């Protein structure tokens, strides 16, 4: 009988330990100490949007056509069409990547700061589409 009591007491102790262990489960939550602020995009995010928006091809064609400035001809009509499509591409870029995308386009095109007219027109692309203009200073390589 004493042996039975010892086994029973051991089993009871084991059950009690399992119950206590199960009741004391600790849940932890980690908090990112350095999250990316809302609205901030990384260069990779903007780069992938540039690819999706065909490297802002219509914005580039608009700047090229408008730079030609033939009034009343097909160049102006083409410029208007490209401007509409450019605005769609900029909208799809989102305001956080819009200026970064324009800077990438300008650098890819090889337009330099000496081509001030192109830079000025590029800065104002977002304004022409109803967004805030871009500051293009210190963009050029």
TrEMBL record:
Annotated coiled-coil segments of the chain: none
Entry similarity comment: Belongs to the 2S seed storage albumins family.
Keywords, ordered alphabetically: Seed storage protein, Signal, Storage protein
Record carries keyword Signal: yes
InterPro entries: Bifun_inhib/LTP/seed_sf, Bifunc_inhib/LTP/seed_store, Napin/2SS/CON
Domain of life where this protein originates: Eukaryota
Name listed for the protein in its UniProt record: Albumin-8
